[in-house]
Amino acid sequence: MPPTQSNSFVVDGTLGALLIGVLVSYVLFGVTTIQLYLYRTRFPKDSLRMKLLVAVVWFCELGHIICIGHMAYTMVITNYAHPERLANIPKSLGLSSLFNAVIAPCVQVFFALRIYRLSKLLYIPIVAGTLSLLYSLATVALVVIGLEFSPFTRYLDRWGWLMDTAWGIAAANDVIIAATLVFWLGRRRETRSSNDTTTAVVDKLIAWTIVIWIAWYMVTTRLYANTFLASLNSRATLRTTMTTLPPSPSFALSPTTSYPVYPWMQTAPPGELAEMAFASRITTTRYSTLSISKTIR
């Protein structure tokens, strides 16, 4: 019997790719949830504003993962053996984009504020915030327009340029934020190059900044959330680095000077850690290594 259209349809490059993307996205959602647990246990004294931001990001992640799961089930199971239905994309895909339109700006603005704390300059955060707003508006417009278009191929022919523009804006914003963070962290490293502890901390920050901004379409939302939570959770590792590495000889007051690890250095909330660090520099140079903590508030 000659193969029918349904039997001869090749799914590896269509449904197979979709299914792999969804599975990878689910794995990364698990990583996000672990990051959330670590954040809740390590930083219970964070501000209410930060906790609310974390909650918004995670619940939007949950909504996004439910939507793409529904989309995958509809296309792989419900429409099984009906390749002609592939052009009718489930509405849940558009709804998932709305969640992404919330998550991406939240994370991008969070890192833009870090840039401001590092540089004290407003133009980069303003540019990043503007690009985030444009991406959100473009995404919402695409979702609203997509509700009226069927099949999906017709939608792409008419509005594909706006979709490309939206993702181009998001990618450009990611590059700007990552490059700016690396630049200013590098400057901090150069100005404090004589301090081994500070250099080690800044090296870690630069490495994490470079790695965590790599994204693909199907897993972009997961990577945004993991970037955000990993950045918050990294404060514990950075505190350990600052309190366990031996101090730089150039800051020693005498050959026998000791550098004790005080309890507040391990338990202070992120905001207080920076203030105490800078206050200590007024009276002594022993804890000048803690000035870098301003970058991880």
TrEMBL record:
Look up the domain of life of the source: Eukaryota
- Molecular function, one GO term: DNA-binding transcription factor activity
For this protein, the record's PROSITE patterns field holds: ANTENNAPEDIA (PS00032)
This protein's GO CC annotations: nucleus
Q: Which UniProt keywords apply?
A: Developmental protein, Membrane, Nucleus, Transmembrane, Transmembrane helix
TM ranges are: 15-39, 51-73, 93-115, 122-145, 165-185, 205-225
Q: Name its cellular compartments.
A: Nucleus
State the InterPro entries in the record.
Answer: DUF6534, Homeobox_Antennapedia_CS
Instruction: Cite the DUF6534 domain residue spans from the record.
Output: 170-236
State one Pfam family annotation: DUF6534
Q: What is this protein called?
A: DUF6534 domain-containing protein
**Source organism:** Mycena belliarum
